[in-house]
Amino acid sequence: MSVAACKIKAVLFDLGGVLTPQPQTFIAKYGKNLRLPPRFLPELFLEGVPNNAFCKLERGEYTLAEFNQHFEAEAKEKAKKEFVILPSLFSAKSLIAGFNTGGVGFDKIGYTDYPLCFEMLRASTILRKNGISTSLVTNNWIDASYENIEMQSQLMAILRTYFTEVVESSRVGTRKPEKKIYEIACGRLGVSPKETAFLDDIGANLKPASEMGMACIKVKDPIVALRQLESITGISLLREDFNKKLVFPAPSHPASVSHGYVNVKPDVTIHYVEVGNGPAVILLHGFPDFWYGWRHQLPALANAGYRAIALDQRGYGESTKPPNITDYSHPELAKDVLSLMDCLGIGIATVVGHDWGGSLAWNLALKYPNRFRAVCGVNTPFFPINPSRNPLVSMYENPGVFDYQLYFQQPGIAEKELENDVEQTISCFYQGVAPQSTKGKAPVESSSLAGGTHNVRERGGILVGLPTKMPRSCFMTEFDLEYYVKSFVNSGFRGPLNWYRNYDANWRFLVPVAHRKIMMPALMVTASHDLVLKPEYSYGMEKIIPNLQRLHIDRCSHWTLHEKPYEFNRGLIDWLETVYSPGKSKL
């Protein structure tokens, strides 16, 4: 890594010409179609800078409607001086409408049809994951006409999820190439110009930024520009297998999402995080996790047109932690989900669950088919019950890899072990598949709990035999680990472990519907290297769930949400499209 790479803490991206087509291209095309002199329109935009109508529009001094009037007056004056006849079809409104859409009307395109440079969006996401802040810095305007306002607003809302900040000239009262707008961007990101890189397609915009000390890249070809950005930051930003039409935002940060609290019972409050608008998708985490386990899925679902709601389930995070074991049975946990839906005015939703959340998701679909449109189990298959035999009895007879659950049965023992060093506990649980080996060697499984859950009682603890200082997982950032540790230091493990101590109550909950099938659309997600919830455990689910689809993810451990978020998000959203909009993509 170069010295320059060590200094870069933020990257600024232009919109028109970097993320969307160059406005100048459409201006030239528009003038050509009207048979205007080639230099007429380009010169019209530049004459009178920085106090002409277009500059005032971009600084927010004019609305778009006001600009149209003044700009057309300037055009008529210029045409008169130069003996140019303006065609009757000429209008400021039609000219501006095609700036960022390549001439395609906002009402005629969807998100994937919009002419965005997805490589740049993905680069911003990667930079943020690597600790580099990003900002969109754009000259834009205020459209008070309400024509096409929904699409424009939706586009900006989507773009905001990919960047740490968005600086709009019409909102801050200054425009590129004025240095003030760069100072504002750097100030919001908490960096100096010398710690900043800037991508723009116009040399006049780059010049003052360069004078301020920024590392500037003139964008002619996006791939070439991103190669230059790679050399400046030392971060790989391009992948050959990248799907240009499918780019997910950076994971949700706790400070950038909406938090809510619902009293589902007089003595029980459920904390949840909510993003997006559209059909509701309820996200249920497992053990040991909390709402933050869905950080990669929340913004992806929101951008795809869904209302994503991730809970801190009972006993976790900021939700209530009742003292009694019976408070954590599936009947009680199901009521939490249904009551939250009632409080939020959600009549029907899709439920997606991982680990214990997956078990609850399947049981919600089985017991309350009138409240759920579809169901997805991540790693956790649907285990049909034997109405004449408590599954815990069978587990004691043949525990296998589920021996750890028997270790969890006695209150106080596992709590003491897991709460002794919470950072070590989280680091031990959250391990996945080792990076792909090279030179033809076989894949290596990293240290994890998965290989040692079959003899936990004999060993005397689930962490016994593991390294005394487990390194942080490769799919967790330093912030992720700190946030997990903080959550479980505050909540403890008593409530989460009580989920394992309700097999009898859960079994009795399902006995009355043991004969029932799950008829709604369903998705079963399996992971190749989950050595506890093995893919083969899901075989035969189609007999009970006839509308089941499958998604299998290779080289993935139990922690599918974290370890393979791109593959999982893509599969989940593709499946949701078959549920809600067959043949139509919302991405």
Cα-atom radius of gyration: 28 Å
CATH architecture of the largest domain: 3-Layer(aba) Sandwich
- Which overall shape is indicated by the principal axes computed on the Cα atoms? elongated
Beta strands, count: 13
SS-based structural class? alpha/beta
Q: What is the count of distinct domains?
A: 4
- Unreliable stretches (pLDDT < 50, length at least 5) are 1-6, 103-112, 437-447, 583-587
Give the end-to-end Cα distance, rounded to a whole number of Å: 36 Å
Question: What count of helical segments does DSSP give?
Answer: 25
Mean pLDDT: 90
Description:
There is one protein chain. This protein is α/β, with parallel strands linked by helices. The chain is 39% helix and 13% strand. It has an 8-stranded mixed beta sheet with strand order 6-7-9-8-10-11-12-13. Strand 6 and strand 7 (268-275) form a beta hairpin. It is elongated. The model is unreliable at 1-6, 103-112, 437-447 and 583-587 (pLDDT under 50).
